Amino acid sequence: MSMAAVSRTPRIWDRKDVLPVAIFLVLFLLLFREFFLAGQTIFDRDVTLWEIPARRLCAQLLKEGDFALWTDAYGGGQPFLANLKTAALYPAMALYLWLPFFAAFKLYYLIHAVLTWSGLYFLGKSYALSRRGSFLGASLFVFGGMYLSSFEFYNHIGALTWLPWILILVSLPWRRWVGRLAALAVLWTLSLLAGAPEITLMTLALAALQILFLASDRKRRGLAAALSFLFAILISAAQLLPSFELWRQSARTSTRFTEWPLEAVQLLNLPFADILGNDRAPGHQHFWAGHFFDRGYPLYYSLYAGLAALVLALWALRRLRDRKILFLGAATLLFLILAAGRYSPVHRFFGAVPLVSSIRYPVKFFVGSIFCVCLLAAAGFDQLFEAGAQKKKAGRRWAAGLAGLGLLLALFSRPLAENLGRGLAAAEAEILTDIRASLISAAVLAALVALAVFLSTGTGWRGRFGGLLMIGIAVLDLAYHNRHINPVVPASFFEAAGFTAGRGQPARIFREDDAPKSLRRGGTGILRLARYARSSLYPLTGIADGAWYFFDEDTLDIYPREYRRLSDAVLRYQREERVRLLRTEGCQYYVGHTRMPAWPAEERESSEGPIYFHTIEGAASQVHLVHDLVPAASLEEKLRLCLQEGFDPRRTAIVDPELTLGRAERTPGEDSFEVAESRQGRLRGSVTVTWPAFVVFPGNWASGWRARVDGRPVKVLRANLSSKGVVVPSGRHEVEIEYRPRGFAIGGAVSILALLALGFLTLRSALTGKRPAVSGCLKGPVFL
Fold it and tell me: 616 — phi, psi (to 5°)?
């Protein structure tokens, strides 16, 4: 039966689906019980350096108000909400406002993992796959190495959740047209706000390919999908417009598109667990293939999909005449080409496309290939366990081939391991032993998969048992080999570092971007790296603990080009000169592993030895008043003035040449500034000056800063190297300065209007009872 012949929407959910969902949930919680059910948390790499600090900081800023528009915690002060990776407007951030931090953090991952699995499960059913096949496909993806490796990337987990649900809504018949349009717009909005544009781009590509290959009414369905995405852009305008402004100013428009492609050697990891190394599981401490990758390690720790999944996907590809299989195969190939990055023949073309070229690290696109391979494996499972003489003959041939493969891997595991070791430049005996263990594990799996394929050629209990065996092999293999991808530590690991704990006021620091030679990646080195980063306030680990960083490396590629140019210039100077430049910007501490005798220092112990917090004497206070202005037009001139003997930033400010304070008689009294309210992105206070003065505020100048003196708007001016300030006349005045970018104001208005319009259309459709339909649906058999 074809879908076109079906007069009703296929049932995606029924009571029998409760059991598969429950089985997945129990297995998932059991496998990762230390993270979800105990007082421990994941910590590796980005989780320690950015994800946990950024979520904690975001929660703090949202509780302060002002929509988390600005932070002083990194880059000398930068837009916060505009950085998509903060996901400040993503609805899940509400969890952090209501729950203890780590309870919210764990719940975020659990909710999204369950929704991702459920979405893939029901997507499989919408593609007319069996319940068992849908269970297999969803489980292969969520227990797969690439998805679990994505736990390190908070935003990816959020955006991946909505991919299958969007494809479901695009695939089903649209009888309640407006309601379905509204639902799809909401899902697109969630994908956009999750803060992973590469995943949203993959979702767009898959939706377009699905319509192209499977829809019987391509134009109408494509128009409806495009309209829903347009609504999502309008609803997300409060996030997207500030982000677009930030993107235009940053170096992200052209950087890192070539870095971290999919390396050919990584494809070995698809059927062979830990073939490139293992430094996560207890007792293992070698990731020996790091020299193949940019930066010495892969972006995704594991790509392991398992031999069973690959065999089933290849079985499915035997039926390329099936448009569903052709669609999934074409999508797999497309994302593989994109993931190849600089090795791809179309790399230069995509590198020239605006926005696309700003997506960092092409290997991210490979998650789209894995997504499609899992669905192909589910389709292959259904094909394999169908009846038919032709299938029986092919099944027996495949079973024999797999058994032979397993036998060869077992018999020749030693010479294969030695040759692979030479190819990977890993000749140590312990490494060769681990490589051989990976090959033997694959040999055992090949034998088990061969048995399951052979049983599929039978009928009755043999066929049913073969199907269950195949599911068990595929899912439990992934669960077992990928269970250590995300190691955990006690949540207390993320308590504030000793230097910032209990200070009450933020510590404005410059942290040298160095690490002791004693640190080596591997085994216990993973925890050592994270412990060192936390204990030494390595950028940006302390942003939620009261450490405000100046001139830190722009690891996210979000800082304005002008600030990066300044930062590069400052870092080229020797330490003594660098300290004088930092003093100009109000930096209080210079942090490094080498003691500078000329500066008073507080010695603290990090996990890798002492680290010194040098006090920068003469640093300007948080807000200060100056009467002496020195004009400078270029960055080089400003740097020269800051380094002159006798320059005191507490008394003098470097400003643009056209700025003057004018002439006025001095009145009796003392200058003062009393702070009435101070939070990141907003400061209000009373200033008393005996003659016209320039009020200097720490933190970077940006076009979104607005100021008022006695309620009247005044211009926020550049000061010194990157600070900001306003001119006040003599007397007592109320001064207020806050960060309110125009893009957020316009975007917020657009978002509200779009939500109202969509709500009105949905309500009107519900009240009138009209159900305009988009005729037709996906081609192929329907699941009933």
Answer: -90, 105
Cα 508 from Cα 302, distance rounded (Å): 38
Please state, in angstroms and rounded to a whole number, the distance separating the CA atoms of residues 448 and 440: 13
The kind and range of the H/E element at 315 are helix 307-316
Residue 518 class from Cβ within 10 Å (0-12 exposed, 13-18 middle, 19+ buried)? exposed
For the cut 80, the answer to whether the pLDDT of residue 285 exceeds it is no
**How confident is the model at residue 353, as a pLDDT?**
72
Are residues 738 and 66 in contact, defined by beta-carbon separation less than 8 angstroms? yes
C-alpha 466/C-alpha 448 separation (Å) is 10
Class of residue 606 by CB neighbours under 10 A (exposed 0-12, middle 13-18, buried 19+): buried
Question: Residue 216 half-sphere exposure, CB side, CA atoms within 13 Å?
Answer: 14
Taken as a whole, the chain contains a residue count of 784
Compute the distance between CA of residue 219 and CA of residue 227 in angstroms, rounded to an integer.
12
Query: Which residue is it, tokens 């016209």?
Result: 692
Residue 686, both tokens: 């009373």
The domain locations on the chain are: 500-615, 624-697+705-739
- What is the C-alpha to C-alpha distance for residues 561 and 77, in angstroms, rounded to an integer? 14
CB 703 within 8 A of CB 566: no
Among candidate residues 218, 225, 219, 172, the one with its CA nearest the CA of residue 3: 172
What's the rounded Cα separation, in Å, for the pair 281 and 764?
57
pTM summary value: 0.93
Count the neighbouring beta carbons within 10 Å of the beta carbon of residue 506. 18
Q: What is the pLDDT of residue 491?
A: 94
Instruction: Give residues with Cβ within 8 angstroms of 446, minimum separation 6.
Output: 307, 402, 403, 405, 406, 409
Whether residue 581 is preceded by a cis peptide bond, meaning omega within 30 degrees of 0, is: no
Q: Cβ(406)–Cβ(414) under 8 Å?
A: no
Radius of gyration, CA atoms only, the chain: 30
Choose between 324 and 217: higher pLDDT: 324
The per-residue pLDDT for range 494-526, each reduced to its tens digit, is: 987 677 766 668 999 999 987 776 665 444 468
Rounded Cα–Cα distance for residues 116 and 139 (Å): 10
Q: Which of 199-208, 270-279, 468-477 has the lowest mean pLDDT?
A: 270-279
Contact by Cβ (8 Å): 569, 595: no
**Strands 78-79 and 40-42, bridge-based pairing:** unpaired
- Dihedral pair phi/psi, residue 363, rounded to 5°: -55, -20
Residue 258 to residue 279: CA distance in whole angstroms: 27
Start-to-end Cα distance in the chain: 11
Q: Tokens representing 390?
A: 């032709």
Identity of the residue numbered 758? L
Q: How many helices (H) and strands (E) does the chain have?
A: 26, 20
Burial of 197 (0-12, 13-18, 19+ CB in 10 A): buried
Q: What's the rounded Cα separation, in Å, for the pair 379 and 324? A: 9
Give all strands (DSSP E) within 552-600, no chain letters: 589-592
| DSSP bridge pairs for 678 | 683
Burial of 46 (0-12, 13-18, 19+ CB in 10 A): middle
Cβ atoms within 10 A of the Cβ of 574, count? 7
Q: How many CA atoms lie within 13 A of 315 on its CB side?
A: 32
- What are the start-end ranges of the E strands in 430-518? 488-490, 507-511
DSSP state string for 460-471: THHHHHHHHHHH
Which residues touch 449 (CB under 8 Å, ≥6 apart)?
307, 308, 311, 402, 470, 473
